[in-house]
Specification:
The protein is of the alpha+beta class. It is built from three helices and four strands. Helix 2 runs antiparallel to helix 3. It starts with 8 loop residues before the first helix and ends with a helix.
């Protein structure tokens, strides 16, 4: 299966089991909310996510309010489905402090 082909529900569930805090949204996207100690820490986290996104050539949807950062991952080219690209980036983001 290619990196941009939709994963089935079992594969997504298995990937989520290894990524604490991440969940599947009702629309199928991989989502997480990170609450950081401060707004400055949130900006640092966003910068780290941006660097990972560039390395992976895949970019999350991001929402930032004060110290909360919401991330959403889907592959638009795959019809807004979750693909291996999303899982790879989710795993990398999950390792950030």
């Amino acid at each position: 299966m290619g990196r941009s082909e939709a994963l089935d529900d079992a594969a997504v569930a298995a990937a989520l089991a290894d990524a604490p805090g991440w969940a599947r949204a009702p629309d199928g996207a991989l989502v997480v909310r990170r609450r950081l100690p401060s707004a400055a820490a949130a900006v640092g986290f966003i910068a780290a996510v941006g660097a990972l996104a560039e390395q992976h050539g895949h970019h999350p949807e991001l929402r930032w309010v004060y110290r909360d950062v919401d991330l959403r991952l889907v592959t638009h080219d795959a019809g807004d489905a979750v693909t291996a690209r999303d899982v790879e980036l989710m795993r990398a983001i999950a390792e950030l402090p």
